């Protein structure tokens, strides 16, 4: 095993992104069970929460079965060594209502996220977490939507606000490895802090894109057990770890125990394994947020339209996460235009 | 402002003034105008002028320009209510004339916070470029103007990673760059050229200073400088975290020293000159963190390499201030240990 390779930090999003896959219905028992297994495997960071992060549980984006604080309290109890992470989008998450209680619950890593062109909205949240002495990463969601120069400008804002790393999210599963290399390496050249990558598997590129990110200099890589995440799922964590070990990276994770944790996740957390279904492929191609898969399928059925048409129209109109209301509006427009 | 804070300010002004009093005599009876009066530099200048008037009866008339009167009043209530001091509430870009009797102008109306530059790059550039232009136009109408200080920034220098050399006034500038991340640096570079243009066309006497890094009262504890972060960690009874290996080098000039340096340069420098202002005695962040820790009981531990990814970015930002020291006989009047202790005391008193 080579020691002179860039250190890679694995962040496990199973209990956050995976919540999308079960309409945010993960239970207290499931959270406790998986945290115990991930902790035992030595996973460095375990992210927990509603799919859209702290404070997001709502009628609009889905009500969670378990409230944020209960989730975090349970996770903290079962993560003895692993760091507890959260995802927070300013707007959903407020400092007083969400971040302060999260700090009191013992959250270690705060991932403050914004749409890829709106890093400005993260300033107060990042500053607050830094002043509280916490580890803070900035997250740029839907990062496929803009060119590398704009991403670098937005990432630099988060860096200047105090983020210790900037994670590019391929929220739509739209990237191909060359896109990843281009953007990650550009950010690496233009930032002082670490760069990370969070992939989705809509085009079957979850692992390939994560590897491309590492080869381009990324130091933080997200994955989910069995790929349990929004839409077609994420980079499959246990595969990711195995591949990176095969590449010579020492991740500090016990592979056997991680495989056990993944088996457990499949058995205990999932209604069904994420697959790259037809609409997921269209979702990836159209560049629409992976978390839209379930609502798009449901609404398309309601309006008797082809979900693939709905995805392409959402993509054409550049609809992003948080604009769930637009799905119904656009479905209605498509339905009406079909009738006319 | 609490009584303890006011005493701290008076003691600081007295201690530093006593070292340079002869060099400030010519300010007696003069009229001074400061833009950016509620910022760090502006506040310390106001404190020093207030002290000279109150204790040494120097009868300096002071006009202070800033956008936020409430902030000025809450930070410097004793200055705001002093008889020789008048506040003008306006955006510097909207200034069209100054009081006729003004003899000296210190133009310090720019926000040095890199977070502001990131979020508001247009506002950053506009304030510096248009603000400086407005100041020079207004200054050109003043009849007995003796000197203008344009407070620029050390951001105009080109920094190379791992280069431990100090920046002198003739060190290379940033490569030409139109990236938005350079908005503050480029605006300051523009303002320096604007100084030359105004000297030539408007016949104004202008001296540029390039401030480096500072500490002391009137700096928000959440300002994005390493020293503030360390003090905040220690005051919150946390271990002091250093992201890298602690071998990044910085220096800090204390606010009271800054005030007398700026005033003395303003009184004695020739038009057209440029001076670095700061402390040339650099320390590694590890040393600075240890100095902060030693001011607390129990002393917090200092953690190095806290980055989860092992990324290390070393950098050095140190001024060569030989030019100002030699020409005006200036020196550091507050050593780093005292500066850190006093800064901590200020924050503690503010709680």
Assign a percent range to the helix content of chain B.
40-55%
**Which sequence of SSEs, written as H and E, runs from N to C of chain B?**
HEHEHHEEHHEHEEHEEEHEEHEEHH
Structural class of chain B: alpha/beta
CATH class of chain B reads: Alpha Beta
CATH superfamily of the largest domain in chain A: Aldolase class I
Summed up, the domain count of chain A is 2
Spans of chain A of 5+ residues with little confidence (pLDDT < 50)?
Answer: none
What's this, in brief?
The complex is a heterodimer of chains A (340) and B (351). By secondary structure, chain A is α/β, with parallel strands linked by helices.
Structural overview:
The complex is a heterodimer of chains A (340) and B (351). Chain A contains 14 helices and eight strands. With 340 residues, chain A is of the alpha/beta class. An eight-stranded parallel barrel of chain A has the order 1-2-3-4-5-6-7-8, surrounded by eight helices. Chain B has 351 residues and is an alpha/beta fold. Chain B has one domain (3-216, 253-280, 317-334): NAD(P)-binding Rossmann-like Domain (Rossmann fold), CATH 3.40.50. In chain B, 42% of the residues lie in helices and 14% in strands. Chain B has twelve helices and 14 strands. Chain B has helices spanning 3-24, 40-56, 69-75, 77-80, 114-119, 121-139, 183-201, 226-235, 255-268, 285-293, 322-328, 336-350, and strands spanning 31-35, 61-66, 85-89, 104-107, 147-151, 206-211, 214-215, 240-241, 249-250, 253-254, 274-277, 283-284, 302-303, 316-317. In chain B, the strands form four sheets. Chain B has a seven-stranded parallel sheet, with helices on both faces. In chain B, strand 1, helix 2 and strand 2 (61-66) form a beta-alpha-beta unit. In chain B, helix 2 (40-56) packs across helix 9 (255-268) and helix 8 packs parallel to helix 10. The model of chain B has no long low-confidence stretch (mean pLDDT 94). The chains are: A alpha/beta (340), B alpha/beta (351). Chain A binds chain B through residues 6-9, 44-45, 109, 120, 123, 127, 130-133, 135, 153, 156-157, 160-162, 164-165, 190, 192-194, 219-220, and chain B through 114-115, 117-119, 179-181, 222, 224, 229, 232-233, 236, 238, 241, 243, 307-311, 313.
């Amino acid at each position: 095993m080579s020691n002179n390779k860039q250190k890679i930090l694995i962040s496990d999003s199973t209990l956050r992104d995976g919540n999308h896959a079960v309409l945010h219905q993960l239970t207290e028992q499931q959270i406790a069970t998986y945290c115990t297994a991930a902790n035992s495997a030595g996973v460095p960071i375990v992210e927990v929460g509603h799919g859209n992060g702290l404070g997001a549980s709502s009628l609009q984006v889905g009500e969670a079965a378990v409230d944020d604080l209960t989730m975090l309290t349970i996770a903290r109890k079962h993560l003895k060594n692993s760091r507890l992470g959260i995802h927070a989008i300013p707007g959903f998450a407020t400092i007083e209502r969400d971040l302060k209680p999260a700090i009191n619950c013992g959250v270690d890593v705060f991932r403050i996220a914004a749409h890829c062109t709106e890093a400005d909205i993260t300033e107060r949240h990042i500053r607050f977490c830094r002043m509280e002495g916490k580890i803070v990463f900035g997250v740029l969601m839907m990062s496929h939507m803009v060119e590398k120069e704009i991403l670098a400008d937005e990432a630099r804002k988060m860096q200047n606000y105090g983020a210790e790393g900037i994670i590019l999210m391929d929220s739509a599963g739209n990237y191909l490895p060359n896109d990843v290399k281009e953007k990650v390496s550009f950010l690496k050249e233009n930032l002082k802090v670490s760069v990370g990558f969070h992939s989705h598997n809509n085009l079957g590129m979850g692992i390939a894109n994560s590897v491309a990110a590492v080869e381009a200099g990324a130091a933080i890589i997200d994955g989910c057990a069995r790929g349990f995440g929004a839409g077609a799922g994420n980079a499959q964590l246990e595969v990711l770890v195995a591949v990176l070990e095969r590449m010579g990276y020492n991740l500090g994770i016990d592979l056997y125990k991680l495989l056990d944790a993944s088996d457990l996740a499949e058995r205990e957390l999932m209604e069904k394994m994420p697959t790259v279904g037809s609409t997921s492929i269209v979702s990836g191609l159209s560049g629409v947020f992976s978390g839209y898969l379930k609502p798009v399928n449901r609404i398309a059925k309601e309006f008797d339209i082809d979900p693939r048409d709905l995805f392409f129209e959402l993509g054409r109109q550049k609809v992003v996460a948080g604009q769930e209301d637009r799905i119904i509006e656009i479905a209605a427009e498509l339905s009406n235009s079909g009738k006319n | 402002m609490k009584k303890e804070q006011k005493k701290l300010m008076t003691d600081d002004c007295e201690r530093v003034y006593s070292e340079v009093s002869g060099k400030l005599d010519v300010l007696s009876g003069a009229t001074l105008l400061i833009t950016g009066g509620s910022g760090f530099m502006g506040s310390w200048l106001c404190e020093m002028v207030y002290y000279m008037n109150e204790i040494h009866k120097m009868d300096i008339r002071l006009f202070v320009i800033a956008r936020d009167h409430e902030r000025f009043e809450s930070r410097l209530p004793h200055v705001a209510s002093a008889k020789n001091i008048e506040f003008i509430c306006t955006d510097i870009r909207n200034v069209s004339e100054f009081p006729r009797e003004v003899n000296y102008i210190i133009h310090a109306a720019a926000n040095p916070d890199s977070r502001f530059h990131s979020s508001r790059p247009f506002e950053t550039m506009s304030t510096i470029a248009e603000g400086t232009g407005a100041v020079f136009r207004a200054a050109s109408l003043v009849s007995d103007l003796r000197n203008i200080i344009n407070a620029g920034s050390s951001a105009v220098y080109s920094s190379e990673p791992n280069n431990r050399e100090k920046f002198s006034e003739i060190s290379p500038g940033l490569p030409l760059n139109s990236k938005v991340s350079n908005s503050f640096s480029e605006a300051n570079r523009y303002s320096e050229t604007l100084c030359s243009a105004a000297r030539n066309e408007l016949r104004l006497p202008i001296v540029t200073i390039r401030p480096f890094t500072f500490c002391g009262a009137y700096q928000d504890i959440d300002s994005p400088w390493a020293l503030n972060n360390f003090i905040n960690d220690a005051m919150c009874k946390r271990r002091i975290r250093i992201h890298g290996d602690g071998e990044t080098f910085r220096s800090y000039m204390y606010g009271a020293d800054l005030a007398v340096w700026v005033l003395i340069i303003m009184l004695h420098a020739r038009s057209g000159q440029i001076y670095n202002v700061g402390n040339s005695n650099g320390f590694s962040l590890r040393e600075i963190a240890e100095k902060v820790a030693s001011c607390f009981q129990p002393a917090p531990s200092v953690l190095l390499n806290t980055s989860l990814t092992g990324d290390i970015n070393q950098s050095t930002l140190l001024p060569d201030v030989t030019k100002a020291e030699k020409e005006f006989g200036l020196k550091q009047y507050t050593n780093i240990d005292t500066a850190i202790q006093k800064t901590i005391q200020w924050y503690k008193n503010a709680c």
